[in-house]
Each structure stands twice: as C-alpha cells, then as structure tokens.
Specification:
The chain is built from 22 helices and 13 strands. The chain has 526 residues and is α/β, with parallel strands linked by helices. The protein has a five-stranded parallel beta sheet.
Length: 526
C-alpha cells in the first residue's frame, strides 16, 4: 500500500507544505480570481481557519515562485506572469501590542528589519513616515510595484477586550495608531507604487474605523464568490482526504463513510455568505485524521476568554445563541465603543449563518465541536467552575438510558455545588440558563424557548427517539409546570408514531438555590 501524504497539521507556510509534498487542498483558482480582478482586499475569518496559509500562498505567488505551484490550478490554467514583486509582510502575531507604546516600537522595528533585508536604510522618525518610505524605496529600487500582506491586523485590539476599562483604552489607542499607520496606503504616491494589498484578521469590528480612508478596499468576508476560499468543502473533504478517512476507519474498526459522517457532525457547518456553501474547520479535520481521534481541537487551541467576559459583562442570555436573527446592517457596526456580541460571535466562529430569508439572517452553532465546548466554558463561567460541575457530562448518557431519576439527581448535584458566594441573581432566568448549559454541553440536542402557536416551550430535549418537553417554574410547584404544558398543547407537534414524548415539570426553589421538585408524565412509547 502506498504511503499517504503527510497532513500539514499546524502548518501555515505554503512553501514548506509544497516542498515537503504535504497534502494541499488547491485554492489557487479562487486566489487567481482575486489577484486578477482587484488590488485591495480585506477578509475576516475565525482563527485557525487558513488565513495565514492564504497570506503565505500570496507571498510565494507574488515572489514568482512558480516551482511551488506546479500541478496546481493557477499553474495549469491561470495566465499568470510570475514576475517577482517586492513584498511587505506584516504579521501582527509577532508584533508586540500589550501597550500602545510597545505597539509603535515593535512596528517601527519590523519596518527596519524589512528595510535591512532589502538593503535599504530606514531613518524616518515616525512609523507612518517609515511605512511610506519603505513602500516607495522598494518600488524605486526594484522597478516593480509593491505587495502588502497583513496577517491578524486586529490582534492589537481583540487581545484587550473583555478585560476592563484600562485594557479597552489600550485597544482604542492601538486602533488609532493602526488607523494612522494604514492610512499611508491611500496616499497618492503610495497608491501608484502598489500592486496588491491583502489584509486579514479574525473580525472586522474595527475595519470601518481603521481603514476608513481605504474606500476601495473590497471586503470578501461575506462575498458569495469567495465563500469557500478558506475551509474545506464537502467535495474537497471526500476527494482529498478519502484515503486518510479510510485509514482512520480501519484503525478504529469502522468504515471510511462512518469517519466522514462523524467529521461532518463535529467539524462542518460554517457558512459565511448568502451562497449556501458549508465548509469544514480545516484545523480540526487535519488533527482528527492525523491522530485518528475525535476531539475539540479547534476550541482547545485558544479559549475565547474575551467573549465569555463580554457575555457576562453585558448580562447576555446564552440560550439566545441558538436562534439569533439580524439584518446585514449588523455587520457594518463594528467599533470598540459599540461592540455587538452577535457580530463578534459570528466573526469569531462561534455561530454561523443558518439561513437567510427576506434579508433576515438566522444564526446557530456551526457544529457539535463548537456547541459543546463553548457551552461547557459558559457553564464553568456561570457556576464558578467547581469540581462537581464535571458531573454534567453524565446527563446525556442518563437520558439515553431513560434514567430520569439519575438525570435529575445529577442536575441537583450540579446546582448544589455552585458556591453561595457567586455574585449572580438566582432567579428563574439563571436556573434556566444553567440547566440549558449543563444539558447542552453534555451533548444532548437541546432547544430553548421553542415557539409554538400557543406560546413558548421553555426547553425541548431530544435523546434518541424520546423527546422531553420541559417547563420551568420558580417558587411554585411542578404540577403547575405540567399543567401549562398540557393546557398549551406544547407536546402536540412532537407526537409521531414510534416516538416517546415525556412531559417534565421542574420547580426551582430560590431558598434552596436548587431544584425544589420535579414531576414527569410519559406519552406513548416505542
């Protein structure tokens, strides 16, 4: 059996991937389309989604490295001139930004290093002037137009979010510095010296303010023609990774199709435009096929602390995530003084476009990896992260076994473990939120506040062929909760042949800070 090509796990260097003949999913058709049709581009995508690899690919392309592109679409079908252009690469992963002073100093040093590598002398006192001089000097020395590639432009901003007023002020100062710095690109002399500009980052909440002068900057973030530029489509996964999936299946005692199905559930589902194209998280796919194991790889590489903090600061209701609605205007309101959590959740990859109808966007979690891992982190934040919280992971199994007594005992044990000193209002909304978080994070398919013609069901849980219709009460009784389910006909839409429907009334006692009582009624059966 021939040896499978190595998977480029954690690699963002196009040169290294191609020289070592690692597996590469060819995106050069879209890259050729981009560089042929325009000159100034912006693209926002979640972390670990291939932005740095795209920047590296563009660098090699504009450096005229044709040897690296042999066999790829652009070399076989694209009419590219393969001229070598001077390239300025600014990677903000390696630029200090803990203070505004350090950001300016680090940017200045980066410009000096680029100048020295190109045999130039950098002596401008201001980083804005230094940037302009570098561009013009490279153009004059080589006689070729300059290419500017910017990776993770927003890191000096998002690294300071959700950490209090002092950090927010640092983010604002960093934003102002970047605005003046990138404003150079619009200068008339500079614009004539430029061949191509590509700027990428996790979010675009500050794009308007930072690049306000670049009115010719094309935003590809939600452009339908570039929906699959980053991430793997279903066709790419099945065609390029079939042998690796088959190998994984043999080792785990399953089949190639079983592996592909599980990859789809865990890592697929990201949609970035009106074009209904879903893509896989490339980092998680590569790791799963490399390790022959399913884990929350993407989530484990960096916890969204700033999002968790912002959710708590703004007293945001987590169950809302499942059915967010917004118009396209939401995506143009990014600014540090007006942070919209819905927009941030989308840009950072924790929700994605589920549907678009009449100009209204509906959002949801993209896949099981994101949903369970994100909700587990939220659960820890809302409950103080006690050791007993880990018992929530048993909940899904208890529901599959239809062991409702063990299920509710575990729910009560989790609530009991929450410290009394936790500064949170223990009302019905709080109990509802924690219940939703613990059950969802255990892997159960849960929907909160499901709308019916007669009202809203507090919670619906699906476990195998059993559906649980849940109503919560606070300082009342479980009978009142069951009575509301019956009177409102909440179970009607779920009654189907072969399906068991369980009505579950739960009353929370604020004095006990826990479940006061619960009662259930079962309808039908398998």
């Amino acid at each position: 059996m021939s040896r499978l090509p190595n998977l480029p796990v954690g690699k963002s260097s196009f040169e290294s991937i191609r020289e070592k003949r690692d597996l590469y999913v060819d995106k050069t058709r879209l890259i050729y389309q981009m560089v042929s049709q325009g000159e100034y581009y912006f693209l926002a995508r979640p972390r670990r989604f291939g932005k740095s690899l795209t920047v590296s690919t563009l660098r090699c392309l504009f450096e005229g490295r044709r040897d690296l592109f042999e066999g790829l679409w652009i070399a076989e079908h694209g009419q590219w001139d393969w001229l070598e252009h001077p390239v300025i690469l600014l990677d903000f992963n390696g630029i200090s930004h803990d203070t505004n002073e350090n950001l300016q100093t680090s940017l200045a040093r980066t410009l000096v290093k680029i100048s020295e590598r190109n045999g130039l002398i950098a002596d401008a006192p201001l980083i804005k002037d230094g940037f302009k001089e570098l561009i013009l000097a490279l153009h004059e020395k080589t006689g070729r137009q300059v290419v500017i590639l910017v990776d993770e432009y927003d890191k000096p901003l998002i690294d300071h979010l959700g950490k209090g007023e002092a950090e927010l002020k640092t983010a604002i100062r960093n934003r102002d510095t970047l605005k003046h710095f990138f404003g150079v690109i619009k200068d008339g002399d500079v614009a004539r010296a430029l061949r191509f500009v590509f700027i990428t980052g996790v979010s675009k909440f500050s794009r308007v303010s930072i690049f306000s002068e670049l009115n010719n900057l094309s935003d590809l973030s939600m452009n339908r023609h570039y929906a699959e530029l980053l991430g793997y489509t279903q066709e790419e996964l099945e065609n390029r990774f079939a042998d690796h999936a088959a190998c994984f299946g043999r080792e785990s005692g399953t089949t190639k199709q079983a592996v592909l199905d599980q990859l789809r559930i865990l890592y697929n589902g990201y949609r970035f435009s009106e074009k209904d194209v879903r893509v896989y998280n490339p980092f998680s796919v590569l790791n799963a096929l490399q390790e022959h194991a399913y884990r929350n790889y993407w989530f484990e590489t960096g916890t969204p602390t700033f999002l968790i903090n912002l959710l708590q600061e703004q007293n945001w209701y987590p169950p809302k995530i499942e059915n967010l609605h917004a118009t396209e205007a939401l995506f143009s309101t990014y600014d540090l003084e007006n942070l919209r959590l819905e927009a941030l959740l989308f840009q950072t990859g924790y929700v994605t476009i589920k549907d678009i109808e009449y100009g209204i966007f509906t959002f949801d979690y993209p896949n099981q990896e994101v949903k369970t891992a994100f909700l587990e982190m939220l659960l820890q934040a809302f409950t103080g992260n006690s050791q007993e919280i880990s018992r929530f992971k048993l909940l899904a199994e208890y529901l599959r076994e239809e062991n409702l007594n063990a299920f509710m005992d575990t729910v009560a044990a989790v609530f009991k473990s929450i410290a009394y000193t936790l500064e949170t209002k223990r009302d019905e909304a709080y109990f509802h939120t924690v219940f939703y978080l613990m059950v969802s994070a255990s892997g159960v398919d849960v929907r909160s506040e499901v709308l019916t013609c007669d009202g809203r069901i507090d919670l619906v849980m699906h476990a195998g062929e059993t559906v649980y219709i849940i109503e919560f009460k606070c300082n009342q009784n479980a009978d009142a909760a069951l009575r509301q389910i019956r009177d409102k006909g909440y179970a009607h839409a779920y009654r189907q042949p072969g399906r068991k429907v369980v009505l579950l009334g739960i009353n929370f006692d604020t004095g006990k800070r826990n479940v006061g009582e619960w009662k259930m009624e079962a309808e039908g059966g398998l």
